Amino acid sequence: MELKSDKEISSLRVAGKLAAQLLEAICLQARAGLTTGDLDVYAAGWIKEHGAKPAFLNYRGFPKTICISVNEEVVHGIPGNRKIRDGDLLGIDVGLFYESWCGDTARTICIGEISPLQKRLVEISKRSLDEAIKQVVVGNRIGDISYAMQSLVEEAGYNVVRQYGGHGIGRALHEDPHIPCLGQKGTGLRLREGMVLALEVMVNAGSPDVLHKSDGWTVYTEDGAPSAHFEHMVALTSQGSEILTVL
Fold first, then answer.
1. Residue 123 domain boundaries
2. 203 - beta bridge partners?
3. d(Cα 37, Cα 35) in Å, to the nearest integer?
4. Could you give the CA distance from residue 17 to residue 84 in angstroms, rounded to a whole number?
5. 1, part of any domain
């Protein structure tokens, strides 16, 4: 695990803000009638126009610029010919490199009119990440972050995904430590100044169990229930914790 200097965190702050701007731009573009592939093409153009490089394209063979996961898809959805419809949940995950530093962030948005269950799922998922971020304090442990996610989600009657989680980030998209969506207070690695963490929460409305599609990437809920995904980069600085993926 690599601790970052103040100068390095400043560089990650720039990359994180750029990733947040990209995510916002895609969310404003998203609407019924477009395909998920249309949004990927838009993202590729936006990244190039802003002097950055895609972080996901060709990562371990991933074939597209961003991940878009629809409804029962949890994460790692490959954009393509699937048309976006009113009533869809759209999980949009973006990553880019700017001057060799990585920015990574995700959000689930609602297209048109959605059901009360979908709306509550999105709200609970976002709140879960917000509570987890509050635990990013020097001296706390990874388990405190994970427990904050899990406890709020389960109190609402939903489930966090067990197999995936957040990660460290810096010059590489994925660095140590791994940050699961479930855990126990007071356990795991102790948090230190200089850590930069990409916190992710994946919440299923039904069972926590997931499967993989034949494309080798797309993760979806075993029972077909909807899922939501949120992610922010958070740095532990000399001034405290700071969310880097903000506009």
1. 6-243
2. 160, 228
3. 5
4. 27
5. no
